[in-house]
Amino acid sequence: MEISYWIFVFSIPLFFLVSGSSSIDNFHQPFPIVEPDPGHTKLRLSREGLEAISRITTPISAVAVIGPYRSGKSFLLNQLLSLSCDEGFGVGHMRDTKTKGIWVWGTPLEVDIDGVRTSVFYLDTEGFESVGKSNVYDDRIFALATVMSSVLIYNLPETIREADISRLSFAVELAEEFYGRVKGQDIAFEPAKLLWLIQRDFLQGKSVKEMVDEALRHVPNSDGDKNIDQVNQIRDSLAVMGDNSTAFSLPQPHLMRTKLCDLKDDDLDPMYVKKRGQLKELVASIIRPKIVQGKYLNGKEFVSFLEQILDALNKGEIPSTGSLVEVFNKGILERCLKLYSERMGKLRLPMPEQSLQDAHERSREEAMKAFEEQHFGRHHAKKSADQLDEEMKEVFKNVIMTNEYQSTRLCEALYTKCEDRMDQLQVLRLPTMAKFDAGLQQCNQSFEQECVGPSKANYEQRIMKMLGKSRSLFIKEYNQRLFNWLVAFSLVMVVVGRFIIKFILVEMAAWILFIFLETYTRMFWSAESLYYNPVWHFIVSAWETIVYSPILDLDRWAIPIACMAALGILYCRCYGRRKHGSQWLLPLYNHQKGGSNRPRSD
């Protein structure tokens, strides 16, 4: 699944390009798959070769031959494919190179590799150091062949030169970047097997392996020549990847090299014919299906992969493994970024800044750990890791902005709710400090518990200021409102005691309270000093106890209780006297004369 995305994206245009209409009737011939651009510095894809490859539905493997120009690469491929020069790759004997770019034999060999039916393509590459080309162009050809192939045959005539070793710098970097992943169970990308092929009649008593080992030994560099140091580093790396390379010697087929295409096997050197058969067996033994990100590639996927690699190699002035590592890590980077985004998306915002930072660190660590376990490349992967880190920071910035927005919305809603609650408490029907303080405390606790995030500190200051102003305003009006309520209450109780329940003690108490509030206080105390008098404090305490308690809130139930009391009194006045007489009430207001109850006499 790792490569499904980029395979789909890149295969769409190629699919229409290649499979829109097949213009090739005979695939038993060579086709160009990569050609030089007009400036002969960069490479571009060729439709014919892509069509030959894209039709393959089985896993693909590629054998590429590289080497200096006019070193017999095309002839060698024809020999490996058992083709004549007339039907196989074009063989040139002139000074100009015959092969331009990279060519593929259109009919793959079908082989069974570890139970996997595999189509093996053979690739012919343009030779190095030919006339009219830049070194960068040669590097791109070499780099592309290295990445595409499963077996890379380095065809060298006579001996191994310093320049030949330098050419392997890209292959070495590629192996260093990816080879470590092959040794584990997760084979994500397997660099090509390097086959040193030395075409030489006599090795001067040495085996080809000894010849290669000798060429890879350190060269003394007492003068500190940078070029020699660089080649020595390549030698060290090639020695380390010894299990990923092998060597083989092949004698010259015939002394008349310009007549090779006209000669039959019977005319060739018998030793050459024998060694050619051994070379075929060796190549067949080391061929493996091409694996990219843990998946075998079929024809269309191989073409899509080729396009990506070519784009990466054409980007810079000089092809580098770093650009290829970025291509391979692109899908992994996107998946790890998605993992981070999903973890951060599950957070319930808003949340405290430190909690958000901790969640970011945990999610980032998880994403980076996943990247470390799956990424490609040892040295150049740092750039992809830095890119992942930067993209996670961008996502985190958006999460921070969302958290701030959500925090502001939540705290603003709680602030407005508290503000409305304070406005309601300011206009209580029965003013009570206990109820106001309880509402204020409840509002403050609710805000402290529910308001979270970066906006909390700012809104805490605002709400404390608002609550302080509300309490000051309530206290300022509380004493005056309570005084007015007590005056009104005393007058009401006078009426109730006099005319409703006719209880003189109630009427007298009400008159005393009224006179105390309206006359005595005005004669002896000022209105302000009254509020500091112990008597007033006693009255306030009694009022608070009666009006508000956890069990009964008269501000809410005063009207229902008054209505029920009125109905009860009315019932007693109307029906209670008929049933029980007047004995149940105190006869404080009895206007009947003493003799009126005596029996009448004639």
UniProtKB/TrEMBL annotation:
Domain GB1/RHD3-type G: 57-177
CDD domains attached to this UniProt entry: GBP (cd01851)
Entry-linked SUPFAM superfamilies: Interferon-induced guanylate-binding protein 1 (GBP1), C-terminal domain, P-loop containing nucleoside triphosphate hydrolases
GO molecular function, one term: GTPase activity
Keyword presence, Magnesium: no
Residues that span the membrane, as ranges: 557-576
Gene3D superfamilies noted in UniProt: Guanylate-binding protein, C-terminal domain, P-loop containing nucleotide triphosphate hydrolases
Signal peptide segment: 1-23
Keywords: GTP-binding, Hydrolase, Membrane, Nucleotide-binding, Signal, Transmembrane, Transmembrane helix
Family: Belongs to the TRAFAC class dynamin-like GTPase superfamily. GB1/RHD3 GTPase family.
Entry protein name: GB1/RHD3-type G domain-containing protein
Organism, as annotated: Gossypium darwinii
